[in-house]
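re: that complex we talked abt at group meeting.

here r the seqs, copy pasted straight from the sheet so there may be weird spacing, ignore it
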Amino acid sequence: MKKAIQLALKLIKTSFVLVDDKKKASGKKQALFFVVLIVLMAPNIIGFGYITKEITQFLVPLSQETVVLSLLLQLGFTIIIFSSVFMIPSYMFYAKDIEKLLPLPLSHAQLFLAKLIQIHAYQIAFLLLIILPPLTGYILAAGFSWTLVTFIFSSWLNAMVTMIMISLILVTIMSVSPWFKNKDRVTLIMSILALSVALYINYNIGGLDLANPETLALSLIQGNQSLSEGFFSYFLHLNISVSLMINFNWLNFALYIVGSFLFMGLVIKLFASILVNIMATFQGGAASKKMSLKSLRGHKIRSALYAFTLKELKLLFRTPIYFFNNVLVVLLLPFIMFVSFTQASGEFSIEMLSAFLNSNPLILILGAAGLSAIFSTINLVTPTSISREGENKYHMLLYPVSMTTQLYAKFLSGIIISSIAVLPIIILIIVGNTLCFELEIMWVIYSVLSAFIMMIFINLFGLVVDVYHPKLVWENEQAAVKQNINFLFTFLAATAITAFLAYSLFNLQSYTTWIFFGTHGALIVAIFGLHRIITSKSHDLLIEH
Amino acid sequence: MIKLTQLTKSYTKTKKAVDNLSLTISDGSITAFIGPNGAGKTTTLKMMTGILKPDQGEVLINSFSMKNNPIDAKKQFGFVSDNPDSFLRLRGIEYLHLMGDIYEVEFEKRIELIEHYSKRLGIYDTLNDKILSYSHGMRQKIMIVGALIHQPNILILDEPLTGLDPQSAYELKEIMREFSKEGKTVLFSTHVLEVAERLCDRICIIHQGKVMYDGTLEVLKEQYPNTSLEEIFLKVTL
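got the structure back, here u go
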C-alpha cells in the first residue's frame, strides 16, 4: 500500500502540467495560469453557488432540500463516469509511462493501485472544483447536518467505486478484441458516446430555464428526475447513497461502507494481474492489415490542391481530437440548436416567422450571415490549420508546391467543414421561402450570398491569423486546437460584424439596406486583401516561425 | 550539383549557427556532413532545402536558386528529415501517393517505385497500416521511400541511419551507392564516422558553423598519418 501511494504521488507530480509548453513550465508560470483560470471562472463559480443557495432557501421550508444534494451526487457521478471513460484508457493502457513502470519490482496490485490513485486524485480535484461552489451555497442556506456528512462521504466513496467499476467494464471490453487496441478508435467511440449523453441531457433539460431559481426549484419539487431515472437506476451504490441521505440509518451506512471497500479490495486482489497483463499487451502495435495490389493501385492521380485538401480532411476526420473539436461540433450544433429552439419556442409558429421576415427581409440576411458566422467560427479548422502541423510545419516549406496552393487546401477544408452546417441553412432558407415566407427572390439570393461571403471571410481570416500567429510547439494534439488563442480573433471578428449588422437593423432603420450592402462590400474587399496576404506574404511569414 | 555560397544563419544575436559557409557538391558523389552536436549540420541542410531562410548567402540546386526559383529547386531533391513522425494518421500507402501527387509522378511509375523501394526496405506488407502504428525505424523507412518516389537527382538525408535495423541500413547504403553510380548526388549528415569512412567519396567536417575540412578521406588521412578517423575528427573539431 505504502509503495503504491509513493508511486502514485510521483506519477501525479510528473504528469500534472497546467501550462503546456515544450520547455517545462516554471512553478510561477503554472501558478499564474491557475490564478488566471480561477479569475476567469469566478463569475460562473459564484453564480452556481448563488443559484444553489437561492434554491435551497426555497426548499428548506418545504423540507425538500436533500434533493439538491441528490442532484449534486448525480452530477458528481456523471463527472466521474465521463472522466473515467477517457482517463482510464489514457492513464492505464495508452500511457507512455507504462513501459517504464512494468519492469519495476512492484506487484501487480501495487501498480494497479498506484494508477487508480493517480486517476482518483485528478477526478477528486475536478469534482471539488465543480461541487464546492454549489455545496457552499447549500451550506449557507441549509446549515450543517448529518445529511451533509453522508453526502460528502458518499461522494468520495462513489467516486472510487464508480471509477473501479468503469475500469472493469472497459478492460473487459478491451480484452475481448484487438480492435480496441487502437487508441484513436477508442477515443473516438468514447467521444461520440459522451456527446450522445450530452445530447440526451440537453434533450431532457429542454427548455428548462436553469438561470431562474424558482423555475428550477419548482421542477425539483414536481419530481423532475427523468434524467436520473434514465441514467442512475442501474447503479446500486448511487441509489444506496441517495436513500441514505433521505433516511439515514447507521446499520445501512456501515453496510454501505463495508460493501464498497470489499468490492474495491476484491477487484484489486482478483483482477490486478489480469489488468496489468492487459496493460502490457497494449504496448504492442495494432493488428496489421494485409497489403494487396488493390490497395497499392486503389488511388487516382490528383492535383496538388486536391491531394492537400484530401490530406487535410483525412487528418481532421481521423485524429479524434480534431474530429471531436473541428468536425463533430459542426455536425451536432445545428441539431442541438434545433432541439433547443423547438423546445423553447412555445407558441412560436411558421406564420409568425413569415410575418416577421416579411416585415423586414433584411432579418433573413442577418440570420443567414449570423448562422454562417457561428458555424464557420466554431469549427476552428482554419484558425488552427498551421498550428495543427506543429513541428512538421517544415514539410510545407519543403514541397515544390506554392504556399498559396497549400494554404488554399487548408482554406478549402475549412469551407467544406463549415458547409456541413451552412449548406442545410441555405437549403432551409430556399425551401422555407418557396413554401412559406414568399419573399422576393432577390432577398433569397442576397441571403445565400451573405452566408457564403461570411463563410469565406471567416475561414480566410482564420487562416491568415494562424499564418501570422501559429501555435507550433505542442506535445498533444489537443493543445493545438483547445489551447489556441487564434480562435478568439475569428470569434471577435464574427461577433463584431454580426453585432454591427444587428445594431443597424434595429437602430438605424433609414440606412440599414445601405449599411448591409456596404458591410458585404467591405467583406468582399477584405477577402481580396486576405488573398493578397496569402499570395505575397505567407511563405516569408511561415519560414520565419 | 549543390552550390552553397557564403551561407550564414543566426538564431541569436551573439552566435552564428552557420557562419559564411561555402561549399560545392558535385554530381555522382556521396558526401557526408559530419560534426559534433550543434555544429550547424541540420541548419545547413534546412537552408539547403528551403525550410530555413539564410540571413545571407545563396543556395543553388542544379543551378536553380532556392531564393528566386524555389519550386524548381525543390523538385530537384528528395529530403529525409531526422524526425520521421509526420502524417501519422495517414496510411503508409496514402502518404506515398500524396508524395506522388505533390511531385507529379506518373501513376505506373509511382506504383513501380513504391513496390521496389518498400520491398527493399521491408515495409511493403505494412503499407496499408497507419504510420502511427509504425516503429521509429519503419517511419524512417516510409519517409525514405517518399523521398525517392520522384526519382530525384539529389538525395539529402539528415541522420538517415538512426533507428534502422542492420538489413535496412545496408539496403539504404546500397541505394545511396546506386544513386551515385547513376551520376546522382547524395548528401547526408551523420555522427557515425565508420559509415562516412566506408560509404563516402567525400566528407565535410563542420564545427561551430564553419567548414573545417572539405575533401576526400584519403587526403585527410594523408594530413594526419597513422591516425584513426575518430582521432582526426577530434583534432579537427577541437
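couple things i noticed - The mean pLDDT of chain B is 91. Chain B touches chain A at residues 46, 49-53, 70-75, 79, 81, 83, 85-87, 89-90, 93-94, 97-98, 100-104, 106-107, 111, 114-115, 124-130, 132-133, 135 (CB under 8 Å).
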